[in-house]
Every structure is written in C-alpha cells, then in structure tokens.
Amino acid sequence: MSATATFRIWRGDTAGGRFQDYTTPVAAGMVVLDAVHRIQAEQANDLAVRWNCKAGRCGSCSAEVNGMPKLMCMTRLDELPLERPVTIEPMQAFPIVKDLVTDVSWNFAVKRRIAPFRPRPPDAPDGTWRMAQADVDRVMEFRKCIECFLCQDVCHVLRDHQRHTEFIGPRYFVHAAALEMHPLDVEDRTEALRREHAIGLCNITKCCTKVCPEQAESICRDVLEVEPEEQQALVVLLLALTDQFADGGADRLAAARALLPKLAGQYAQAYYAGIICERWGKRLFGHGSPGHGPVVYEWLREAMEWYEQAERVRPAGDDDAILRWNTCARLIERHAHVRAAPAEERVEMPLE
User: Fold this and answer.
1) In which element (H, E) is residue 4 found?
2) What pTM did the predictor assign?
3) Cβ(285)–Cβ(292) below 8 Å
4) Cα–Cα distance for residue pair 246/286, rounded to 1 Å
5) How far apart are CA 268 and CA 274, in angstroms?
6) Do the beta carbons of residue 57 and residue 46 sit within 8 Å?
7) Tally of CA atoms within 13 A in the half-sphere of 80 that contains its CB
8) Which of its termini does the chain have fewer beta carbons within 10 Å around, N or C?
9) Where are the alpha helices (H) located in the chain, listed in sequence order?
10) pLDDT tens track of the chain, all 352 residues?
11) Is 151 in contact with 70 (CB distance < 8 Å)?
C-alpha cells in the first residue's frame, strides 16, 4: 500500500459546495473512515462526518466512495485504487446538511406511514401466543437491517427521479415484508403497498441488494436453510447471483441456473431463465472483448426465447416478460456488431 493517498472530499452545505483534496498517510488495515478521521484531526477540524460504532452495525457512516454507496467503516483502503484520488461525497438521495452528513429523517417519516404490527388475539388464557420456530427464524432475517439507507440512496426512483412523496423505497418494502410474514400479524398491507406506497415503481434492477452491507445473498441462504422452497428467497437469491455476474465467473452463472428447477410454475422458471441469459449477455457485452458480438447475440436470443415461453403462460396483467423481450431486442437493434455469426462460424456459446 502507498505511504500516502489523496482523498477528494465534498465540502459544503445547503448553499452549495465543492470537492477538496487532502493527502494523508495511510497504512495497512485502514478503512475509509480512518482516513477521514485523520484528515479531520490533522487538516480539517470542521469536517462534518456522521459515525458511531465503526464496526458496520450502526449504519451511521453511509457515504459514496468513488461513486458507490458504502459504509465508510467497512470500505478497506487496500480494495481501492489509491494511485488516483479517492472521492468521498454524501448520499445523493437525501438533503445535504454539511459535508458528508445528510438529513435522513424522511426515512423515519415513511416508516410511520406503514400500518404497524397488529397481532392476532392471544392463543392462551395467560395472554401468550404459540409460534413455530421456523416462522420466528424467518422473520428474524429481516431484522438484520441496520438502516444505513444505502439501498434508498442507490434506488433510481429516489435518487434520480425524486419520487419521495409517493415511493417508500427498498428499505421499507423489506420492513413491510417483515410485518406481513410475521406469524402473529393480521394486518393486510398489500393494497396499501400498491396504491399508497407505489411498489409498482420498482423495476427490480436489484441495485439495492448490491450495496446492502448485510448482503442479500447471505440473508436468502439463511432463509432457505429454514424453508428450502421459500419462493421469494429463491428469487432474490437468483437475482443477487446475477448481480455478481460483472465480478464473478461461470460459477455464478451455474449457481443461478441451479435455482431454476426450484421455482414454482412454468412462468417463473421461464422468466428467470430469461433474466439469467439476458444479464450474462449484458456482462459479455460490457466486457467488450474482441469478437464478442455474436456471442452476446446468442445469449440475448436465448433470453428472448425464454421470455416468449413466459409470455405464453404469464399471469393476467403481468407484462414483465414482454418488457424484457423488448429490452433485448433494442440492444440488438442499436448495436450493429451484436449479430448472429455466419452459419459456418457458429459454435457453442462460451461462458466467458
């Protein structure tokens, strides 16, 4: 690791601000929050930064490091390219207070809008309830959330489109799910999620799971240990694996495909088979290796075939398969090199 590193930190308040560079000594084992504290102590005593536990449990030190929402206390310097300045800025989805501190109080107001826990009458005369341990374990998975609000920050509905008045965001969809799946709760929030909390604005890009420090993949695997056929956990795990295509290899592709037979119904199996092929094709497209066009084309065409199968058995009013088919078709249409190879050159699709 370099003896020093430069950190480009946003300084300002509600009136505006700018990035300012600070060069400071760094050492093995340091995290971004360590560097910020050193800069605060030695060069910028008035630098505003929110933090508490420095152990990834309180969710206080959320910021954007090199453009990616992260906990500063969990972002190791040896994982960053220190040969160029490391940019640190506040979360973009919330109003600025000062420097790296944002006003996240909107989130707490949103939580008050969701119907609270309403238990069924007690099961026994002494006022107690009876629950299966599996139901208790399932609900506990949702309680791993540390409310860092990184998922809210990365969500394009809030970050780019500023739909805060109508859309509650991924953190509170998880909160609502925790209440809905609680074995004692009798409140029905499904209609409110659709009409009042705009769940339909979520287009399942799953960027929220990618920035979650509690890792959606780990949570889903814990749920599946208790209930191996839990459909929501299977779908979220599959999507979490496809989120890792950009960084992982064929093992992630194989792991995602292995989940398909466990999905209930022809529609889910065909639709998510299409998702896997589409995202793998886009991974290859993004890598841009020489001669990749025909390979990308074959993956996208396979995705479209799966979407066609899903469309034939889709639930009434569900247009997701059609929309995804159109996305693949547009990608092929807009890029002349994404075309089928001549028949004499065609080979089996490589994974890489």
Assistant:
1) strand 4-13
2) 0.64
3) yes
4) 8
5) 10
6) no
7) 28
8) C
9) 32-42, 105-113, 133-142, 150-154, 156-159, 170-180, 190-195, 207-211, 216-226, 231-243, 250-258, 266-287, 293-312, 320-334
10) 568 999 999 999 999 999 999 999 998 889 999 999 999 999 999 999 999 988 787 899 999 999 999 999 988 898 899 999 999 999 999 999 999 999 999 999 999 999 999 999 999 999 999 988 778 777 777 777 889 999 999 999 999 999 999 999 999 999 998 899 899 999 999 999 999 999 999 887 778 888 888 766 666 776 788 788 888 788 878 877 887 776 666 888 999 999 999 999 999 999 999 999 998 998 888 776 677 889 999 999 999 999 999 999 998 878 888 988 998 999 999 898 888 887 655 445 555 5
11) no
The C-alpha atoms of residue 347 and residue 327 are separated, in whole angstroms, by 25
Maximum distance among all alpha carbons in the chain? Answer: 78
Which residues are paired to 351 by β-bridges? none
Count, residues in the chain: 352
The long-range contacts involving 241-248, CB below 8 angstroms and separated by at least 24 positions, are: 241/217, 242/206, 242/275, 242/276, 242/279, 242/280, 243/206, 243/207, 243/209, 243/210, 244/217, 245/279, 245/280, 245/283, 246/283, 246/286
Neighbours of 312 (CB within 10 A): 11
Q: How far apart are alpha carbons 298 and 247 in whole angstroms?
A: 21
Dihedral of CA atoms 188, 190, 193, 194 in degrees, nearest 10, equals -140
Question: Rounded to an integer, what distance in angstroms lies between the CA atom of residue 131 and that of residue 136?
Answer: 7
